[in-house]
Structure formats: C-alpha cells, structure tokens
Amino acid sequence: MEGSAPRRTRIQQEKRELILEAALEVFSANGFRGSTIDQIAEAAGMSKPNLLYYFRRKEDIHETLMQRLLDTWLAPLRELDDIGDPMTELRSYIRRKLEMARDFPRESRLFANEILQGAPRIMPMLEGELKTLVEEKAAVIKGWMRAGKIARTDPWHLIFSIWATTQHYADFDVQVRAVLGPDRGGDGRFEDAARFLEQLFLDGLKPKA
Amino acid sequence: MEGSAPRRTRIQQEKRELILEAALEVFSANGFRGSTIDQIAEAAGMSKPNLLYYFRRKEDIHETLMQRLLDTWLAPLRELDDIGDPMTELRSYIRRKLEMARDFPRESRLFANEILQGAPRIMPMLEGELKTLVEEKAAVIKGWMRAGKIARTDPWHLIFSIWATTQHYADFDVQVRAVLGPDRGGDGRFEDAARFLEQLFLDGLKPKA
DNA sequence: CTAACGTTTGTCCAACCGGTCAAAATTTTG
DNA sequence: CAAAATTTTGACCGGTTGGACAAACGTTAG
Fold first, then answer.
1. Nearest chain B CA: its distance from A180 CA (Å)
2. Range list for CATH 1.10.357.10 in chain B
3. How confident is the model at residue B1 (pLDDT cuts 50, 70, 90)?
4. Tens digit of each residue's pLDDT (9 = 90 or more) over B96-124
C-alpha cells in the first residue's frame, strides 16, 4: 500500500511524536473538521509551517493517528482466547476494555468521532479487518455456548454491548461525571463501573431466587 | 432567561421548522463546526441570507435544536415508574430507548456529538435537570432492590449501561452494520439487539444451571 | 389601489483556514 | 572549519465561512 518507510532523522522522529500527541489531544476534543492546524501546532509548541514540514497535510496526521490507534484499540479483543474458562475470559475482556476507557479516553473519543461522522476514513477497515476479527471471536463464543459454558445468545450483540458499556465511560465522560456529581463521580467511578458490569454480564438483574 | 416568546407569522413557523429539520440532518452528520450554514440552507431549500433571516446566528439553530431534543430524549426515563412490576418496567424502558435509537438516530448522534465535544452548550442541563432526574429514578430503583424485586447493584451505572447499549445502535450505526455484514445487519438487527439486551439485563451470561 | 409589513435575494466583507514558498537559521557531515 | 543537508520562520495566497445590508419582491389590510 505504501512505499518503503522513509528514513527519518532523530529530530523528525521526535517532532512527529510531539505532533501526534498534540493532534490526539486536539482531534479528540474537537473532531477532525473542528480542529485547525494552528491549534495542533500551538499544542505541539511549533509554528504552522513548521508542522507542515513534518506532515504535509492535515489529513496525514489524522490518518497516522488512526492507524496507530486501531492496533492498540483492538488488542483486548485479539487477546480473547479459546483457552481458559469462558466466563473468566469474558470478564477479563470487559475489565481490559474498561481500563482502556480509563487510561486512553482520548483515543476512544477520536474513534467515536470518526464513527459518528460515518467513518469516512476507516470504513474499509471496519468492513475488512474488524469484521473478520469479530467473526472469528464470535465463533469462539459460539463454541462456548455449544459447550454449555455460557448462556446462548447472539455473540455479535454481546460484543457490541461490551464495547458500548465500556467505551461509554470515555466517550460520555462529561455526562457521567455530571450525573454522578462530585462525590460519586470521582476516581472511584471506574471501580464502581467494573463491579456493576461484572454483575450485569454475569447474572443480570433478576433477583436471586 | 428569555423574554416572552416572539410572535411569529405562519410562514415563520413553517420555515423555522423546515430549517430545524434540515439542520438536524446536517449537524448530526457533521457536528457543529463541521456544518456550514450553506449546507443547512441548501438542505432546507433556501438561500443562506434567507435562512439567516429566520435564525440570526448558526448557534441559535443549534441551541433551539438542542432544547427541543432534550425533552423528547429524556421522555423514556421520565416514564420509568414506580407502579407496575419492576422487571417489566426496566424491560420496557430498554425497549423504548432502543426504539428511539432506531427511529431517531439523528437526534442521538446530535446529542452524542455534543457530549463528545465536552458538552459546552448543555453542561448546565446535565448538572441540573438531568442529574436530578437520574437521582430520582435511582431512588426508585433502589426501592426495588430493597424490596427484593431486582438484584442489588449500583442504580446509576445500571442507567448508564442502558443508555450505552441502546444508543450504541444509533451512534455507532455504521460500525454495527459494517461488522454485521449485509445479511445480519439488515432491518432485523434491532430485533436481534432487543432480544439480546433483554436476556443480558434479565439473566446475564451465566449458563442456566 | 396603496401603504405597511413581511420575505427573499445578490452583493459584499472580514476573519479564518489549509497550504505554499523562498529565505534564514540550524544541525549534521566530511 | 566549511559545505551540505535539514529545520524553522515570515510572508503570502486562494478558497471558505459566518454574517451584514440594502434593495427588490410579495403579501396583506385598509
């Protein structure tokens, strides 16, 4: 797809990292169209033309950012493994996703922004790599169901519900904090969420008979 | 906050509705900064200056849209009532929210966009009206838990999980459809989702002993 | 009919924005 | 050190955007 990776000097590597870090901050807060090169340049501590020396177009920054994001973003799902106890596997998948929402909220929001706008830049990846990965894992989950290890349901929607509930704490963070208020909405909210989600996915809400 | 509502001619009422409808389409697809007055004007079938005759600033359109949105958006939660069987109440709340995601995806995306950008325009409402409403309903749910009608958990995070799982089908629609593929991702996906969510919130994933 | 009022349009503007370019400053290399 | 290569900067450009405005057009009531 791309030619061989261009050689880069030490300065180029450092400055490119600096720009990507600044761009993550700006893009995740304002979206692609809502962000200006000037904003990113200022956040990175350099002038606009200087930034454009490292990335020729605004889109190049976004593209690079998105490519890096996707690998780390899908890592937890890739780790979902056939070995080990199914219920434990699912529980640690949920925990890992929630930790990502806590530790990398900007990445989550960048992704959410892209999807919300119709995923114009990563549609091929959704229909290709992501679809294949989910199919693979859905098969694993189906195996667990056939073996009677977990209840029978739709594996795809199960995965969606894990994505939705965990990423909610990154993407809708301001709302979560506003609704919980200063006391409940402090740092402890992720542990509360983890406890709740564990129970939800394990037992649901029906009272113990 | 605002003076008495200005008198409006018949034409003004109609045209304002037309503009709001067009703006919902454009804003929900491109975000606030990503949308131009020209786009909205074209979608509404009028010229930019003409549109600006009805709404003096771009922000006014967005603000009006947001105010209207919030009422209908919170209606399902307001309906969550103490009368009736708790488990049934929760199930129909989930169903109503999922129906809103299906029937009003643009409203959902508009709201998601606003929250993602840090809710600059509706923060007071989140900390006021919304927080109060959720507190009220959390108390109702706590009552159910005390009465042994549903399992004991955190009512706040329960509400978040319902929001997250249902709105996911509007906000991340492109991703859902891409991952499900043409066959599974058709119109039936909302029924599949409803079935899955009902089971999840009722029984969780633990296999029936 | 006509005056008053409401609506629509074309033109214009200043600010912003993505990106170019050549020259200056700096760093690297021989 | 000095030449070569790299990095930084200021000035600039064309296109877009939000919004202003006055003139033209349409509608309605006396």
1. 7
2. 66-203
3. very low
4. 999 999 999 999 999 999 999 999 999 99
| Residues of A in Cβ contact (< 8 Å) with B117 | 29-31, 34
Q: Which CATH superfamily is domain B66-203 in?
A: Tetracycline Repressor, domain 2 (1.10.357.10)
- Asked if A178 lies within 8 A of B113 by C-beta distance, the reply is no
Helical segments of chain A, H only: 10-30, 37-43, 48-54, 58-79, 86-103, 105-116, 123-125, 131-146, 155-171, 173-184, 189-203
Q: Evaluate if residue A1 carries a pLDDT over 90.
A: no
Give nucleotides in strand C with any atom < 7 A to a protein C-beta. 6-11, 16-22, 27-28
How high is the mean pLDDT of chain B? 93
The pLDDT score that the predictor gives to residue A58 is 98
pLDDT at B10: 73
Name chain A contacts of B113, Cβ cutoff 8 Å. Answer: 31, 116
Given CATH 1.10.10.60, say whether it is the number of domain A6-56: yes
Rounded to the nearest integer, the mean pLDDT of chain A is 94
CATH class of A60-203: mainly alpha
| Superfamily designation of domain B8-56 | Homeodomain-like (1.10.10.60)
Give SS3 for A55: coil
Cross-chain residue pair B151–A196, CB shorter than 8 Å: no
| Placement of tokens 């989930």 in the chain | B94
Among residues A108, A92, A91, A75, which one has the least CA distance to residue A176?
A108
